[in-house]
Amino acid sequence: MPWGTVSIRAYALCILLGIVLATIMTSRRLTKRGAEPGIVLDIVLWAVPLGIIGARLYHVLTHPGDYFYEGANVWNPFEPGAIWNIWEGGNAIYGSLIGGAVGAYIGCRMTGIRFWSFADALAPGLLLAQATGRLGNWFNHELYGLPTDLPWGLEISADNAQFPAGLEDGTLFHPTFLYEIVWNLAGVALILFLERKVNLRWGKALGVYLIWYGLGRSFFESIRVDPSEMFLGIRVNVWASFAAILLGIVIFVVQSRRHTGDEPTPYEPGREWKGADAEVDSDETESDSDSLDDDVEGGNDTGETAATSSSRSPSP
């Protein structure tokens, strides 16, 4: 969508919308758990930029043939093909998770929020953001799967740069991005449901997220037809999905053994937010002080009255 000299891309709008939705959802969840309202923004300011950087670097490193070849423009951002030109496409969710985790850790250290508490509050929001971002793949007509005869198959124009060679115009393809949207939204519902049944604190909700997303992505990735680096005959992102599943299992098992109870606070020990408590304590102290003053004044009046009455009473 051109706007003057600036092109506004639907894919970018979908990603931004996903970030906004995830931030709102995470903020509400973390605030309900005792965090200061709005503190999520202090963490997001670190997590989002590093997540974008991580997404781009991961894509470049897993698609080296697209950027590093004889005569390629690698570094000049004013020329097409540079590794910095994120507007030309090329971002990876797993890279954004790695970079975003680093940024979130920095933000949590600065705000005093426990990293595991933030991660658990974020887990369903991550899936919501990813589902929203995947909608951008439909606008771009990209990241589709193998040919299919299913009624919901996606029609891709034969002049598309990624249209598989040797197939006829009008061939339908699996809309893998749509499958992932549905899978991610189901994951949101799953985490919210499990939180009502079992204790998913101390990083365990993050573990469920990694397992769920890794399972779905490993399948959807395996039926995609877009070019990808291979390792031992398997797409790199499938290996990354296996790693996510393994990491999720490890986090869930280890944290389940270490922490059997609920979290007392989302803050690190000694860094709890005392804003609301301080106001309440201040009001109660002031109220108690006023009551004490009234009692003392009342007691003096009573004492003086009693003494006066006693001095005026006749001796028996």
Provide a descriptive summary of the structure in words.
The structure is a single chain. The chain has helices at residues 10-32, 39-62, 93-111, 115-140, 176-197, 204-222, 236-258, 275-312, and strands at 2-3, 6-7, 154-155, 172-173, 230-231, 234-235. With 316 residues, it is mainly alpha-helical. The protein has one domain (2-258). A hairpin with a 2-residue loop joins strand 1 (2-3) and strand 2 (6-7). It is globular and about 65 Å long. The relative contact order is 0.10. Mean pLDDT is 82; it is low at 278-293 and 295-316. This is Phosphatidylglycerol--prolipoprotein diacylglyceryl transferase. GO terms for molecular function: phosphatidylglycerol-prolipoprotein diacylglyceryl transferase activity.
Helix content: 55-70%
> How many DSSP-defined strands?
6
Oligomer: single chain
Mean pLDDT score = 82
Q: How much strand content do the residues show?
A: under 5%
Q: Cα distance, first to last residue?
A: 106 Å
- Cross-sheet strand order for the largest sheet: 1-2
What's the total helix number? 8
Shape field: globular
Which spans of ≥5 residues are poorly predicted at pLDDT below 50? 278-293, 295-316
Radius of gyration (CA) equals 29 Å
Largest sheet: 2 strands, antiparallel
N-to-C series of helices and strands = EEHHHHEEHHEEHH
The computed structural class is mainly alpha
What are the salient characteristics of this protein?
6 strands; mainly alpha; 61% helix; single chain; 316 residues
Describe the secondary structure blueprint for this structure.
Layout: E1 2-3, E2 6-7, H1 10-32, H2 39-62, H3 93-111, H4 115-140, E3 154-155, E4 172-173, H5 176-197, H6 204-222, E5 230-231, E6 234-235, H7 236-258, H8 275-312
Antiparallel strand pairs: 1-2, 3-4, 5-6
Helix pairs in contact: 1-2, 1-4, 2-3, 3-4, 4-5, 4-6, 5-6, 6-7
